[in-house]
Amino acid sequence: MPAAAVFPSVVITVRVLEVFRRLQLRCPRVGVQAFMRTLCDLHGVAPCGYIVTQFTVAFDIYPILAAVNKCVQAALGRDTPDWCLKNACPSCMYKLEGEAEIPLPFLATIDGNNSLKRFWGREKAVDVDGNIVPGASRERLDTCVPAGDYYLLREEVDKWSKEGLEDLMRNFVPGSQEEGSAGDEGAGCSERWQNMKEDATARAYGMYDEMGIFPALCRHGFVLVIVDMVKSGELAKYGFAITAHLICVLGKLGLGYDIGCKFAEMVCMHPALAKLAADNDFKALVGAFHGHAHNRRCQLCNLTTYVHGVGLEDLEGCEKSFSKSNALAATTQYATVFHRQQAITSYLRHADTADAYQGLCKLYLTSFFFTLTTSTGVPSRLNLATLSKEPLQETLEIEHYQKLVNLRDLERSELKPRHAIEARDKTLAVVTDLELRLNIARRWEDDGDDWIRVNRGYQRAIDALEGLVVARMFELPKVNMFDTGYKLRKHIAKALQAHSKGVKAALEIAPLNLEIPRLVTHMADEDRFLIYHERHLTREGNPALAHQVAAHRMEWGRFNALHMERLVKLSKEPGCTASITPSVSVNKERRVPEEQDIEMPDVTAVVPPPEGAEGDIDEDNLDTELLIDSFERILVMSDDS
């Protein structure tokens, strides 16, 4: 790639650019300056400042891959608006025919992150008091936009601000919002959260233009949509814009947010968003990690722990994503608007493919085993509780002994009125029944061995019971005293927590039974679809584009064998009811014409792991191996030159 449009004197090989691109995707902290200085060290030349600029120019030209990918998507018929959003997660969105309904069919989470700020290049100015203040912008106008449709346009987001509310009010019908539908469950929570107070977050800092990002992710970690927080903190307009976009494209939605209680109230009171949310059964939730900062009434209504249909999902995927994406801050703080968005979208696209998609089945394995151990814990405790009861044989013998005593007393009575005779007859009937159940051929006598044995056990049980009653009577006055009864309260709390986890674990089985067949069907349909179009483009005389489709299929399908290995392992576990056989999708766009006879690889076939391989590959070791391999290639290139 040339470093200048006219008369270039320096060129960068495509292989070096690809190494840097792959390296930066795996380790976002690596910037152009560090990479170029490494190349200078390898070639034995002194680093110069202009080399970084030349490499940046060449790297801007290199994303011609984005244009190639755009051609591939157009050839596959995937260039329609919001196609990527509708197909972001195969487990969430690839619905099958005849599958059961669940209370919350789609769960997502949103949150703001101010780590990916960008400095605003401005001139220095002096105010009337002689103080230096930020002046006019010195950044050049850049109309370039990053590839893909992750980002919502700023103009679309600004429609949901206070200033843009007038345009939305034109379609507002009075009374359409459900007044009070959010209730006052979150009353008192707003004072605890600074990101609820727009007067505290709307301040535009002169040194920054973009203050961070505000993404939306599905429950499996796939990025759905993202907006930039421009010259402000975490405003309500970002949540409104994303919520409206997701509802319009995806329909029914459960959305996790750290201020979900207040956000639900604001949505219900919004003149343009209330009706849209009500028609699609929108539900705002509070993530499990942020529940401690909400009052008890709010937790019972909005916290994921207590909402029916959420299962074991905590809706805290944004925090997990931020822990990785924060590494981009070092290379994007001083970048241009385009370069910053380009780096963010490239990283997110790679994270969806290499992290979220790769970890789907591992997530299923973790969820299933946790669900299995949690749900089986409740029957185990119930079984343990039944052991505290005496065996049936012993209980019947004690009851038989008591009835015999009553019968002897009634028979010894000198006066036998009618009620005594009736009582004796009833007792005799019970004694006879017990003798039949215990297989007693001869009735026990007062001085018999069986009578003496059972009488002794009965008296011991009575003595033990009396001792427990007396001890309990002495303990009761101290129950509410300070520093007493702690162990009992602890046992009760643990029992309630175990019961709650068991109930939620049972609810987690239903989503797993839906999502696992979706993933298997998606892998089979996608592979067949791509093979068909690859051959179709070859027959039409476009082998170059067919080659790119094949490369896309190989890049996408490199984790399928790993998925099936984990799913087969999961299907063999006792208690797993999910099917790993491909089914029929509701979406018809991946269906290949029936007259085409295509030999398909069996997605359920599992490739055995190599000898000596144990468990999953550690991510840190994988990153290290990739780095070593990349630099070895650079060394080879430097030797060739």
From TrEMBL:
Superkingdom classification of source: Eukaryota
Supply the name of the protein: Uncharacterized protein
Q: Which organism is it from?
A: Mycena metata
